[in-house]
Amino acid sequence: MEYYKSQELVIAPLTQEDGRALSEGFAAQGWEKPLSQFEGYFKEQQEGRRKVFVARCKGEAAGYVTLRPSAKEGPFKGKGWPEIVDFNVLEKFQRRGIGWRLMDCAEEEAAKTSRTVCLGVGMHRGYGPAQRMYIKRGYVFDGTGAWYQDKPLGPYEPCVNDDELVLYLTKYLPQKEVRPLAEGELTPEIFHDFCRFQPVEQAWRKVDGTWKVQEVCYTDRWANEKPQAMCAALRELLAGGGKAWGAFLDGKLKGFCAVEGKLMGSRGQYADLRELFVSADCRGQGLGRALFQQAVEFGRALGAEKLYVSAHSAVGPMAFYRAMGCVEAQECDPRHAEEEPWDVQMEVAL
Is 122 helix (H, G, I), strand (E, B) or coil? Predict the structure, then answer.
C-alpha cells in the first residue's frame, strides 16, 4: 500500500530494507538510530501497535514518522488519542516538503479514529524546525508546561536540556469529506465559509521563450457577487455533463473543483479542468490534491488522454500543479488563454 505518491516521492509502510537504509543514513550524519530501533518498529507495525510512514525520494529512504494508537505516557496517557512519535528526515532531504507530507499522512491516519492527535517535542535548538512546523500546522500547547523524564517539571526544578525535556501539543482534526456537488446545493450560501484570498508577490512569466519568476504585487480575491456567478457557472457545467466536487471540513465547503463534460483539443485529447480552488485558511491540508485526483479520475472516465489546466501563474499554485505532474501544454487552448492571459497553460497525462 501507499499513503502518498508523486513523481519523486512515495510514502509507504516501513520495510526491513527501509530500516537498514535509514539506520545507515542517520549514522552517516552522526545521529544514533540503531537498526534494532527500526526492527522494533517493523515488529510493532506487523502487530498493529504502531504505524510507520517512510518517505522514499526517488527510491531512496529519506525520512519517517510513526503513529501510535494512543499515548502511553505524558499528559495524554489514557485519553485514547493517537500520538505522533519519532519524526525525522535525513539532512540531505530536508527543505523539500518531505516532512510536511509525512505529517499529512500521519494526521490522515489519526483522523480515522480520533478528532484529536497529540505529540511531544524537545526544547533544545535541534528541535527548532519541528517546533516551527507544528505551530504552522495548527498544533497548540496543552498547558501542562515542560515535562522531564516523563514527569511534569515543577517551578525551579533542575533539569538538563536534552531529548527528555519535552513540551506537549495537540491538534484538532476536522472531519474531512470530498464528494460530488449536486446542482441543488449550488447556492451562494455554500460559499459562506470559503475564503478566496491569494496574495501574489512572485509569478511565472515567459520571457524570450523561457519561463522565469518575476516580482509582482497584487491580491486575488472574490468580489461580493462572485459566489452567485460561480454557482451559475457550476450549474451550467453540470447541465453539460461535467462534474464538480467539494472538499468539506466539518461540513463546511473549503475547496472545490470542476471538469467539463466535453473533451477539447484538436483530437479531443483533453479533459478541461475548469475550476480548482482551496480556501485560504485551509491550504496545505491535502484538499487540493484530493480534489485534483477526482478530476484526474473523471478525465480518465471521459476517455481523455490528458487533463488540461489553465493554472494560476503565482509561485505557490505553480508549485502545486508541478507536484501533481503538470507540464506546459503541448497545445494551447485559445479560449483559456484569452480569458486568463497571465495563466500558464498546462497538462498532465492520464
Answer: strand
Give the residue from 111, 102, 262, 99 showing the smallest Cα distance to 176: 111
Distances in Å between the alpha carbon of 17 and those of 20, 35, 36? Answer: 5, 10, 13
Three cell numbers written together for 256: 472545490
Q: What is the residue-wise DSSP string for 5-42?
A: E-SSEEEEE--HHHHHHHHHHHHHTT----HHHHHHHH
Which architecture does CATH list for 4-172?
3-Layer(aba) Sandwich (3.40)
103-141 pLDDT, tens digit per residue, is: 999 999 999 999 999 999 999 999 999 999 999 999 999
C-alpha distances in Å from residue 45, one per residue of 40, 69, 85, 264, 344: 9, 11, 13, 47, 44
Q: What does the pLDDT look like over 228-287, one tens digit per residue?
A: 999 999 999 999 999 999 999 999 999 999 999 999 999 999 999 999 999 999 988 889
Q: What is the CATH number of domain 176-349?
A: 3.40.630.30
C-alpha 121/C-alpha 142 separation (Å) is 12
C-alpha cell at 120: 511531544
What is the dihedral angle through the alpha carbons of 224, 180, 273, 55, rounded to the nearest 10 degrees? 110
Distance separating the N- and C-terminal Cα atoms of the chain: 21
Domain edges within the chain: 4-172, 176-349
- Which residues in 151-188 are b (16+ Cβ under 10 Å) and which e? eebeeeeeeeeeeebbbbbbbebbebebeebeeeebee
CA distance 168 to 166: 7
